[in-house]
Design brief:
Helix content: 25-40%
Structural class: alpha+beta
Largest sheet: 9 strands, mixed
């Protein structure tokens, strides 16, 4: 499903529109953008459009585009939600390289986490990334995630094995934002 509009100080999470699949095709054509993603080859536009349709119909995924100043810069999601055990996996991609290292991912993660705990009533979110993806690890830790371990030689990429860094955040450990600045949603 597509998530509702969530507004932060600088970042807005919004449902995708018809222009977004083409953005992903362009972003995924850049090896720097896909370096730490599971994308090996840029998908054709038709495949990306089908993926957007399927994620919109999903009952176990919540997906958003990330916008800054009304410009799409990436996406984030809560995936594989296990409603019985109140947990899900998270992921984020900033495809617009001009938006890297500006704190947008951290803010998007905080909005997503707040939505997961307050609106979806989830108990735990987990995530993983390449060990060498220091930017993602730093953003996740700023958003309240705690390292739970490293899976050694978990992924094969670029002719070698890579370790995978794993982290999670429990609702009880979540550093809730000030109550004077509650989550602002539209259409929820």
């Amino acid at each position: 499903m597509y998530g509702p509009v969530l507004r932060g100080e600088r970042v807005t999470l919004r449902p995708p529109d018809d222009t977004d699949p083409a953005r992903f095709v362009a972003w995924f054509a850049d090896p720097e953008v896909t370096r730490y993603l599971g994308v090996l080859f840029p998908p054709p536009l038709e495949i990306e459009q089908e993926w957007f349709k399927s994620i919109g119909e999903s009952k176990t995924d919540v997906f958003w585009m990330i916008e800054v100043a009304r410009r799409a810069i990436g996406s984030c999601a809560i995936a594989r939600i296990d409603w019985l055990h109140a947990r899900g996996s998270t992921g984020i991609a900033i495809g617009d390289k001009t938006a890297w290292r500006k704190g947008y991912a951290t803010e998007a993660m905080r909005l997503r986490t707040e939505y997961a705990f307050l609106q979806l009533n989830l108990h735990k979110l987990s995530t993983r990334t390449f060990m060498e993806n220091e930017g993602a690890r730093r953003a996740l830790q700023k958003a309240g995630y705690r390292e739970i371990g490293v899976a050694r030689e978990e992924m094969w990429r670029d002719g070698r094995w890579h370790d995978q860094w794993r982290a999670e955040i429990l609702r009880a450990d979540w550093p809730r934002r000030d109550s004077a600045d509650p989550l602002r949603t539209d259409g929820c």
